[in-house]
Specification:
The protein is α+β, with helices and mostly antiparallel strands. The protein contains nine helices and eleven strands. The chain binds (R)-mevalonate.
Length: about 325
C-alpha cells in the first residue's frame, strides 16, 4: 500500500446514535411500518488515527489487533476488513478507537450504531463522499452477520438525526411532529436479549401457529399507522394507549418477560401515558411516554427503584431537521 497515492487524514471520526423503536419491532420484519427515533445522548464515536505503515490494525473497542476480535464481534470485524478492501488499504497501519455509550444487546441498536460510526470514520479518513444509501448498504454487511435477517430499521435510525417512518425495502423517511413538553423515558433492565434469538422465536411461532400469531403482526402494523396519525394530531394520550397495546401484543408474540412487564406497569402507575418494551425484547429496555418533565423524572426514579440499571430521558423538543448528509 502506497499511502502517497491516496489522500489520507491523520485523524478522522464518525458518529452515530442509539435507536429506540417506538412502534413496530418484529412486525417490521414482515413488511409492516415502524416508527423509530435516534437518542442523541447515547452515541458511538469511532476515531481512526494513522500509525506507521505495516503495523497491525489495533482496535481499542476490544483492545487488540482486529484479527483477534472475539466471535461476538464477527460482524464488526468483517465490516472493517470489507472497508479496508474497498479502499485498497491493506498494509496501512491505523488505530481504530470506538467509544460507545450504548449497552450491547439491550434493544438500542448497538451493533448498527457501531457499524454506522465505523463506516463514517473510514469515509472521512479517506476523504470520500458517502451517500445515505451507500452507508446503509455497508452497515448491512455487519448487521446481516450479527442479526441474520435484519429489516434495516436499526441502521436506518442510527444514521438519522430525526425520528423515522420505515417500511422494509420501501420507505425510510423522516417525520416531524410537535410534542414540545413530552418525552420518552428509557429504562435498561440490565438483561441481555439477543435480536437473532427473538427474531427466530417469532418466526417459529408464525410458522407453527399462523392463526394465532399473524393477527398480532397485523395489529402491530395497524398500531404503527394509528400512532403516526396521533403524532400528526399531537394526541399524546392515544400514543400512550398504542404503546400499552403494543406491549400486550409483543408479550403474546413471546418476546417480553416478567421484568419488562413489571417495568411497564411501574411506569404506568407513575403517570406514564403508556409503556412498552423496545427492540427485540427477551431483555433490554422499556420505554414510557411522559406528558411533562416532572412526570418523566418521577417515572425514571420509580423505574430505577424497580431495578432498572440505567435510565435516560429523551425530550422530543430536541429533534432538528437533518442537514441531509449521510
Ligand atoms: C431489532 O432492533 C428490531 C427487530 O424488529 C428486528 C429487525 O427489525 O431487524 C426485532
Amino acid at each position: 500500500f502506497e499511502s502517497e497515492r491516496i489522500k489520507l487524514k491523520d485523524k478522522a471520526t464518525g458518529k452515530s446514535y442509539a435507536k429506540i423503536i417506538w412502534f413496530g419491532e418484529h412486525s417490521v420484519v414482515y413488511g409492516k411500518p415502524a416508527i423509530a427515533i435516534p437518542i442523541y445522548s447515547v452515541d458511538v464515536i469511532a476515531t481512526i488515527k494513522r500509525i506507521p505503515a505495516g503495523q497491525q490494525i489495533h482496535c481499542r473497542y476490544f483492545d487488540g489487533p482486529i484479527d483477534e476480535m472475539a466471535d461476538n464481534l464477527r460482524g464488526v470485524k468483517t465490516l472493517i476488513s470489507h472497508l479496508i478492501n474497498l479502499f485498497g488499504a491493506k498494509g496501512l497501519g491505523f488505530d481504530l478507537d470506538i467509544k460507545s455509550k450504548l449497552p450491547a444487546e439491550r434493544g438500542m441498536g448497538s451493533s448498527a450504531a457501531t457499524a454506522i460510526a465505523i463506516v463514517r470514520a473510514f469515509f472521512d479518513f479517506f476523504e470520500v463522499n458517502l451517500t445515505r444509501s451507500q452507508l446503509l448498504k455497508l452497515a448491512n454487511v455487519e448487521e446481516k452477520i450479527t442479526h441474520g435477517n435484519p429489516s434495516g430499521l436499526d441502521s436506518a435510525t442510527a444514521s438519522s438525526n430525526m425520528p423515522i417512518w420505515f417500511i422494509r425495502n420501501e420507505i425510510n423517511e423522516q417525520i416531524d411532529f410537535n410534542l414540545p413538553t413530552s418525552s420518552l423515558v428509557i429504562a435498561d433492565s440490565g438483561i441481555k436479549g439477543k435480536t437473532s434469538e427473538a427474531v427466530s422465536l417469532v418466526h417459529d411461532n408464525l410458522v407453527d401457529e399462523p392463526e394465532s400469531f399473524q393477527p398480532l403482526i397485523d395489529e402491530l402494523g395497524r398500531i404503527a399507522e394509528t400512532a403516526r396519525n396521533a403524532l400528526a394530531t399531537t394526541d399524546d394520550e392515544l400514543l400512550g394507549q398504542m404503546m400499552t397495546q403494543s406491549q400486550r401484543d409483543l408479550a403474546k408474540l413471546g418476546v417480553s418477560n416478567q421484568t419488562l412487564d413489571t417495568f411497564c406497569q411501574v411506569a404506568c402507575d407513575n403517570h406514564a401515558l403508556g409503556a412498552k418494551l423496545t427492540g427485540s425484547g427477551l431483555g433490554g429496555c422499556v420505554i414510557a411516554l411522559a406528558k411533562n418533565q416532572t412526570d418523566a423524572q418521577q417515572i425514571s426514579t420509580a423505574l430505577r427503584k424497580a431495578g432498572a440499571t440505567q435510565t435516560w430521558i429523551q425530550s422530543f423538543k430536541n429533534y432538528q431537521f437533518s442537514t441531509g448528509e449521510a
